[in-house]
Amino acid sequence: MISEATKQRFARELEKYPADQKQSAVMACLAIVQQEQGWISPEAEAQVAEYLEMPAIAVREVTSFYNMYNQKPVGKYKLNVCTNLSCQLRGGKEAVEHLCKKLDVNVGETTADGLFTVQECECLGACADTPVMLVNDRNMCSFMDNDKLDQLIDGLKSAEDAQ
User: What is the pTM of this model?
Assistant: First the structure.
């Protein structure tokens, strides 16, 4: 499951830490697996644990603690909307509801075409910019009112159609 090329990427991460501290690279290794596979399966967790010479449960604890790690397959575009208290008070919950209605999914589900997964997430550290969302764990979007949400979804769909 984990290729030699992936293991080479792991090795580059390990170079950043003392030899007796391999487990320090667990988050980086999990991120690499997710970049390549789209999610982190239990089998991949076990292989990361073996590679880093640490208990599989310790890797599982990391994967399940941080919401940036996908524990099941997700859409091409993972849309994480902050629904922490500050964002809830300023439209975060409504943004999630709008996305779910527009995409015809419930929170945590993926659209039938496999393009979009809508999730709620914890604080993104941009409380003054609410509602905020993170697209594919990388791109922060601020002030996401219904019009901006529609523009984002329509733009991503158009880009897919153009391919």
Answer: 0.81
